[in-house]
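[recover] target loaded
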């Protein structure tokens, strides 16, 4: 692992709070996209295919480009991507709300996804710098902001649009995101002090990239994402198919997302104590039975099972990101982009495939099929080497010029 400038025994609370707040803002924009899809469908009289194109535009731009932003971050350093990514995401959401035509809507949603993609690798890399030796706990604190922001997207945007209409409601929802970008811009000099002793691309790193381990971890992430995106897409529809209202389905979805935010705080410290791989295996193993209980039992028991699923899936996002960074110590930013981009890209494709299964057979069969994907991930986990933590290094503050804010 690279010798980081900040390798103390404690987490830099100010830096981590700043990064987590930025993560909340950018993922609030991300969560606003699915919340506005029904309103876009009504405004432009869209069928299911054209509506799915909007989601594909957001997922493609925010997932496939993340490794590229990560590579840029590793080679050059680009702190400006943090406020710049948030601002672009907020502007994209606001512009989408008032887009005059469908294809302009697709374009601005795509641009919002680019902003989301730009923030994450650089944000995750600086979360490493702020975490010291407590990598899993630190990454959990970073991710709690993103998970909370994504959960708040539909909770806040939907009533705003119902109250004010799509244009005013969407514009109002974008304002906090843009303000968050300006707030983060003001603290960049502080974040710059968390950097390594030398520019990221010049730091002498200890350890070689383990591409094989990263490929296996990618399989684990992908299989977890099959289950997660199936639930994100079909939980409301499943609840409605059982005779309940759309509001009931959205409430259950919000419960799953919010429980995931709590799981982020729970599993990070557990991983620091018991080990990253061991915690990941246990969490993955729990998913299949809990999903089956949700589908086959339902009711209050099913809702509790869905809460456990949220804890185990979202709570392991930070763990797999830390493991990716440890497996690719020469490319920490790219590792962060791969761990997030794989989850979103594979999950989005799986959701479309499972939709085909639901159309051809039924929704219950599609959900049951998705429940067994994490079980295959458990098998892959046993082939993962134990991640090696970074060695201790003295605390040192490099001059701001060694990590340019605007290059």
């Amino acid at each position: 692992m690279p010798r980081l400038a900040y390798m103390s025994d404690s987490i830099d609370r100010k830096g981590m709070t700043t990064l987590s707040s930025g993560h909340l803002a950018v993922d609030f924009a991300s969560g606003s996209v699915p919340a506005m899809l029904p309103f876009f469908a009504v405004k432009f009289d869209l069928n299911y295919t054209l509506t799915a194109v909007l989601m594909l535009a957001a997922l493609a731009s925010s997932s496939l480009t993340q490794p590229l932003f990560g590579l840029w971050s590793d080679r050059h350093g680009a702190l400006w991507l943090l406020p710049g990514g948030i601002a672009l995401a907020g502007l994209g959401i606001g512009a989408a709300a008032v887009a005059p035509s469908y294809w302009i809507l697709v374009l601005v949603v795509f641009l919002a996804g680019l902003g989301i993609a730009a923030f994450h690798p650089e944000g995750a890399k600086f979360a490493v710098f702020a975490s010291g030796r407590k990598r899993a706990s630190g990454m959990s604190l970073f991710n709690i902001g993103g998970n909370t922001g994504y959960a708040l997207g539909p909770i806040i945007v939907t009533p705003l649009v119902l109250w004010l209409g799509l244009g005013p409601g969407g514009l109002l929802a974008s304002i906090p995101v843009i303000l968050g970008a300006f707030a983060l811009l003001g603290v960049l000099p502080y974040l710059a002090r968390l950097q390594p002793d030398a520019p990221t691309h010049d730091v002498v790193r200890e350890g070689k990239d383990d591409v094989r381990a990263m490929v296996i971890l990618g399989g684990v992430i992908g299989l977890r994402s099959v289950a997660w995106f199936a639930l994100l897409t079909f939980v409301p529809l499943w609840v409605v198919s059982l005779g309940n209202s759309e509001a009931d389905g959205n409430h259950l979805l919000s419960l799953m997302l919010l429980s995931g935010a709590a799981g982020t705080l729970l599993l990070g410290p557990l991983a620091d104590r018991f080990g990253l791989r061991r915690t990941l295996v246990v969490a993955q193993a729990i998913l299949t039975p809990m999903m089956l209980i949700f589908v086959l039992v339902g009711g209050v028991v099913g809702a509790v099972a869905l809460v456990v699923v949220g804890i185990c899936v979202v709570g392991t996002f930070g763990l797999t990101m830390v493991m990716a960074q440890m497996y690719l110590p020469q490319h920490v930013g790219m590792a962060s982009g791969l761990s997030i981009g794989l989850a979103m890209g594979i999950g989005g494709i799986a959701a479309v495939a499972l939709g085909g299964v639901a159309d051809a057979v039924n929704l219950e069969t599609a959900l049951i099929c998705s429940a067994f994907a994490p079980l295959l991930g458990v098998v892959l986990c046993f082939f993962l080497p134990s991640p090696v933590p970074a060695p201790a290094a003295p605390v040192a503050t490099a001059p701001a010029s060694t990590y340019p804010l605007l290059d």
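[recover] notes: The domain at 1-206 is CATH 1.20.1250.20 (Growth Hormone; Chain: A;).
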